[in-house]
């Protein structure tokens, strides 16, 4: 390798000039601001503690509790921009306040469930029809979606509910009358609180 070839090789593997790096980063940031989807979020108080909400342009896409603000934001779509926007979440925040004070039994907000699989979607849509103050078993929910042998899979699908409370997965219990599981923050303590709030606990036979 002669001196000219060596110089070309060194130029090829050398770090780019600082101004080139800055320019590249600026172009990426400009693209991200223009093209990345926007997720707007807020936090509201509740008997479960701080309740974090996020919505896309399609509708409410995340509800979570029992975690920090940083953890909540970290679990959102990493390819999306996030913006704290109480105004964008005002409707669902108001409805949640009404729910927790006992003046509302259901929710009327658009949902974005694009993060779940078709099977999970069928489970969540069925769970959304369970009336306030009542409970279904995992087996009942499996039969409701035409999969009578899929009780375990139904439970797993409920564990991936991105909008708990709004889609009331807490109203689904085990076949023996016990509470079963709950993936929401606080686990079964939160599930028990929600069922007690809705007046459903007296209907449960065991495991309280």
Helix content: 25-40%
- Order of strands in the sheet with the most strands? 3-2-1-4
Give the distance, in angstroms, between the N- and C-terminal Cα atoms.
Answer: 80 Å
Q: What order do the SSEs take from the amino end to the carboxyl end, as H and E?
A: HHEEEHEHHEHHEH
Q: What general outline do the C-alpha atoms trace?
A: globular
- Low-pLDDT residue intervals, each spanning 5 or more residues: none
Q: Please report the first level of CATH classification, the CATH class of the largest domain.
A: Mainly Alpha
Taken as a percent bin, the fraction of beta residues is 5-15%
Overall number of domains? 2
DSSP E strands, number: 6
Mean of all residue-level pLDDT scores: 88
Estimated radius of gyration: 24 Å
**Computed structural class:** alpha/beta
Largest sheet: 4 strands, mixed
Could you say what the CATH architecture of the largest domain is?
Orthogonal Bundle
- Specify the number of helices: 8
CATH superfamily of the largest domain: Winged helix-like DNA-binding domain superfamily/Winged helix DNA-binding domain
Q: The CATH topology of the largest domain is what? A: Arc Repressor Mutant, subunit A
């Amino acid at each position: 390798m002669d001196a000219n070839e060596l110089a070309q090789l060194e130029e090829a593997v050398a770090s780019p000039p600082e101004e080139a790096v800055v320019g590249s980063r600026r172009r990426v940031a400009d693209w991200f601001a223009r093209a990345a989807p926007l997720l707007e979020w807020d936090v509201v108080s509740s008997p479960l503690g701080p309740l974090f909400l996020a919505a896309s342009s399609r509708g409410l896409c995340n509800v979570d509790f029992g975690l920090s603000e940083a953890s909540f934001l970290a679990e959102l779509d990493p390819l999306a921009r996030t913006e704290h926007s109480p105004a964008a979440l005002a409707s669902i925040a108001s409805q949640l306040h009404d729910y927790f004070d006992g003046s509302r039994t259901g929710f009327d907000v658009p949902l974005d469930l694009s993060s779940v699989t078709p099977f999970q979607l069928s489970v969540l849509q069925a769970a959304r029809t369970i009336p306030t103050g009542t409970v279904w078993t995992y087996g009942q929910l499996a039969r409701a979606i035409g999969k009578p042998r899929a009780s375990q899979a139904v439970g797993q699908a409920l564990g991936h509910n991105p909008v708990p409370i709004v889609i009331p997965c807490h109203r689904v219990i085990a076949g023996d009358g016990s509470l079963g599981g709950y993936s929401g923050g606080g686990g079964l303590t939160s599930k028990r609180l929600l069922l007690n709030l809705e007046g459903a606990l007296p209907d449960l036979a065991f495991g309280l």
